[in-house]
Amino acid sequence: MHSDMKFLMDLAMILIAAGLGTLICKKLGQPRIAGQILAGVLIGPSIFGLVAHNGFINNLAEIGIILLMFLAGLETDIDELKESFDKSIIIAIGGLIVPFALGVLGIYIIKDNFEISEAIFLGVILTATSMGITIQTLSEMGKLKTKQGISILGAAIIDDILGIIILTIVLGVFGKGHTSVTMLILKILAFFIILSIVGGVISELILKNRKIVRKIKPIYLLSTSLVLALLFASFANELGVAAIIGAYSIGVIISTTQLKSRIAKEVSRFGYGFFIPIFFVNIGLSVSLGKVMGNLGIAVIIALIGIVSKIIGSGIGGKLSGFTNKESFQIGISMVPRAEVALIVANLGLTAGFIKDDIFTSIILLVILSTVLTPLMLKKAYK
User: Fold this and answer.
1) 177, 147 in Cβ contact below 8 A?
2) Residue 279 domain flag
């Protein structure tokens, strides 16, 4: 096959692997995303080398997570989200403080020679949470709309925003020429102010034109929804907020309108049929088992710190928010996954010289374990 067209075979292999992984996990009674991630590891460079992790696949995966978060927004009850804000912020803070503290302490325990910037940057990496893994798992289990599910969603959003601010502070202290914290906070505030204004306009337009809206064909409904999701994701990213938060936010706005169910139906078919499976398989493709094995000792310790610290920190936050011990444990597990966010921050730290290969490798193992184990642990925790 001509090299310019190799991406066609790559996509075919990814979708076949995702389908087989889903089928096997369904037979075993396990969440399908675990199968899709492991399928990515198998066909990726680490084992069979059938598909390489590249920029094109990565871009498709980005669309996948944007659509997944858009759908999560459509499933959210905005009134319940507002009611759970106090609980969510406590959970988020617990899920930031404990991983950060244990990450910094971990460096002191496992390494003799290190710089303070390395310890602090590891703490920053461990504060990250990947919303996609948990949301998909809770959705599969029918737990996304529970009081824990709503609080977890809110906490994950707050976690992302606070994590961005902490990262900016660290880069400002140890790096050169980065965005000021004040400017970043102003941009984030501007995003949510503009979001509320635009959201009000969209809701009002749909409400005033009910008869016209009912007649919109599914294909136009889908295309309009995709445009909105991509625009808001891009807009959020430009203002220093994670793109997935922008997609989630516009989903929440549309969830308050009569179009909620119709849009969710069309976007689900489109997303789950192509882009969303690519996102989960791509996580597996990005894994480098060779690097992990080269620094296995440190990698295992840091990966365990990363998993345990989130369960403890977010679990304590859940308990302080009024949840039962079992519910708090479920919340703690839900905040464990690290995927694209942790890898992006870790890669930034490696490129800037804040962390070395051994720490970067440890984050790769943490990503593997947290993305594969979280769906399995959640299923056990909810029984």
Assistant:
1) no
2) no
Residue 357 inside a domain? The answer is yes
Amino acid identity of 89? Answer: I
- Model pLDDT, residue 48: 92
Measure the CA–CA gap between 109 and 302, rounded to whole angstroms: 11
The confidence score (pLDDT) of residue 308 equals 96
- Site of tokens 């203002």: 239
- Token pair, residue 257, equals 């309108």
Asked if residue 114 is part of any domain, the answer here is yes
pLDDT of residue 340: 64
CA 116, CA 376: separation in Å to the nearest integer?
A: 35
- Which residue do the tokens 């193992």 mark? 365
- Give me the pLDDT at residue 114, please: 79
Cα distance between residue 246 and residue 228, in whole Å: 10
Residue numbers of the domain that contains 215: 59-274+289-381
30 vs 15: CA distance, rounded Å: 19
- Contact between residue 259 and residue 80 where contact means Cβ atoms under 8 Å apart: no
Q: How many structural domains comprise the chain?
A: 1
pLDDT for position 104? 92
Does pTM top 0.85 for this prediction? no
Examine residue 48 and state whether it is found in any structural domain, yes or no.
no
Ranges of the chain whose pLDDT falls below 70: 1-4, 168, 172, 175-180, 340, 344
Q: What is the pLDDT of residue 137?
A: 83
- Domain CATH for 161: 1.20.1530.20
pLDDT tens-digit map of 295-331: 888 889 999 999 999 999 999 999 999 999 999 999 9
Sign of the CA dihedral with 73 first, then 273, 222, and 226 last: positive
- Joined together, the tokens standing for residue 198 give 């635009």
